[in-house]
Amino acid sequence: MEPGDSCSLIVFTRDLRIRDLPALQASIEASPKVITAFILDDDLLESLSSAPNRLSFLLDSLCDLRDSIRELGGELVLRRGNWVVEVARLVSETGASSVHMSQDVSAFARSRMDQLTASLANSSCKIQLHPGVTVLPPGTNSPGTGGFWKVFTPYYNKWIEARWRDVLPPPKQIHHLAGIPTLSVPALSELSVSATSPNLATGGESAGLERLKIWAKSSLQTYEENHNALALDDSSRIAPYLHFGCLSPLEVAARLQGRPGAAPFIRQLCWRDFYHQALSARPEISQVDYRNRGDVWRQDEQDAEAWRQGRTGYPLVDAAMQQLLLEGFMHNRARMVVASFLTKDLYLDWRIGAAHFMKFLADADVANNQLNWQWTAGTGSDTNPNRIFNPTVQSVRFDPDGGYIRRYLPALAGLEAPLIHDPDIETRRLLGYPEKMVDHKLAIEAYRAQLASYKSS
What we know:
The protein is an alpha/beta fold. It has helices spanning about 20-30, 40-50, 50-70, 85-95, 105-120, 150-160, 190, 205-220, 225, 240-245, 250-255, 260-280, 300-310, 315-325, 330-345, 350-360, 365-375, 390-400, 405-410, 425-430, 440-455; strands at about 5-10, 35-40, 75-80, 100, 125-130.
């Protein structure tokens, strides 16, 4: 380190990229020298030790970010420990005049930020938060009456008409403050004993940009008609890159806007913003019901485990759960079906499903994951408790030839449609495939009776 150098510090969090990153641009503009840093937070590592897919994706993304920063003349400073302590230590070691970060909305992120603010209260270093996690920052698109939007459609109508900030180009150069001790990016085996899904995607900005480019060229134009087709697998699969900030949601939206087929896809990016603004206003809804209707959920660990393992006897549900285990990803249509099955057919708590998704999904995001689960369970915002997905009907409609089921359930690969959607008892026994754990019609009758009892009490 060179004494007397004025410097600024950017601490990367859920923004592991160099393109369209206001926090990075602000840090470069703030001082002649910049420290680019990431803290391997002990609390975060503990929670991710049982979620190896996300942890692996994070480590990939850090390696890619480090390489991108080096190409610009900088160096990613990596520290491990208590996040607040390590950021404050970097400020003390370097004499940084400002700390720049992207603003996040989770209770975890906000708690860390409050602690850091208190830790640096007597310092001359200023903390500056910047947009970058969503297209529109939470709070900038609000109802005229104040508060936050509780229904999606009016939020979307304002969102799509809003003036978005300009997309920022990547910096041409980073003048790094030299001589700062740093760690190497650890191997996954150093942080977790759990294995990743065998077909997990590679993390990082470079991989995300390539994935977006390929998908937009091949599938964007037909997105509206094909995005629910399970066997086609026309999903963009950029969700984990958005979660870790390898891709800027604003840049994705701006890049695609106006292109044939883009409107329904951009609407999905708006759903992401919608959930972030809801979580920002009510952080407790990551764990408690948005709408408490008095549910007394069934307690049945055996049923929950059969669902987790894809042994429900409903081929579409089981194929989807196997996709999750194999890839750390699940098709969006399938996510709704398996969530409906858990919370309505089995009447098990949505938090059981949300926790399982957080464990295996590479894209598991508190706002999107928890609130999508609540939306399907009927306890969320803008929701309909009677929105029920019949797994067999969904299978016939969105996987008519059974290609998705064959891909993820090898035991049924020899069956043709329509038998593959609902094998008879003899076929199940011959193939070693389980019988249905519940009768859908009877289970939904029981679910509706339960709802009616809450309304009458």
